Amino acid sequence: MISVDVIVPSFNSGGLLSEALDSIQVQTYPPARVIVVDDGSTDGAVSGAVAGRPNVTVIRQHNGGVSVARNTGVAASRAEALLIVDHDDLLVPNSIASLVHAMESGVGVQMCHGLVQEFVDSRGGLPEGVRVTERTLPARLSGCTLVRRTLWDRVGGCVPGMSQGEWIDWIDRAMTLSPKVVLVNEVILRRRIHANNFTRATAGKVQYLDVARAALARKREGR
């Protein structure tokens, strides 16, 4: 069976990290290790969230952004496959089992991803007048994408300095290598919509445009 490390980058997560770790801890297919990367948090939430949890490794670093935190976690992992879950999102109990089953379903599968179920945080905090439609859709967010380490190593890590669109950029670079990819038609990730990530997504539209331009340039160059 494929070994899986789950990497959780975290920065000032408040109580959300504990909920994410709870969802990882109840997996029917337990990960080999859970690696929490504390990216220079100032709220002390990581220490409380990981206390008493078996098989959780914490790496603390100066704040370098989400891309650097993801790369740090991957560098510390040893498993055959990687799953990177944001500190504010949740897995469902069969997430890892379903992804591993898909990865083992054929020869040479290097990446598999599933459905994302979006939900609005019950604590609210969205800007006044904003209405978000909760939906379930196929996606290639990091938290619903299992990646073989061999593919990660070929692609290279996330680009440091990118705080929005860094995973879209990584996926686009991966797809230029024509990996064998399998879609799992099940909910793998519950993506929380809350004030902080809604604001970051709105502010990060310029970076998304930069990612799109870079992808277009790679296609033109045949890479």
SSE diagram, text form:
Blueprint: E1 4-10, H1 16-25, E2 33-39, H2 45-50, E3 56-61, H3 66-76, E4 81-84, E5 90-91, H4 95-103, E6 109-120, E7 136-138, E8 145-148, H5 149-155, H6 166-175, E9 180-193, H7 195-203, H8 205-220
Parallel strand pairs: 1-2, 1-4, 2-3, 6-9
Antiparallel strand pairs: 4-8, 5-9, 6-7, 6-8
Helix pairs in contact: 6-8
Description of the structure:
- GO terms for molecular function: hexosyltransferase activity.
- InterPro entries: Glyco_trans_2-like, Nucleotide-diphossugar_trans.
- It is a single chain.
- The chain is of the alpha/beta class and 223 residues long.
- The chain has one domain: Spore Coat Polysaccharide Biosynthesis Protein SpsA, Chain A (Alpha-Beta Complex).
- The chain contains eight helices and nine strands.
- Strands 1, 2, 3, 4, 5, 6, 7, 8 and 9 form a nine-stranded mixed β-sheet that branches.
- The protein is globular.
- The model is unreliable at 198-208 (pLDDT under 50).
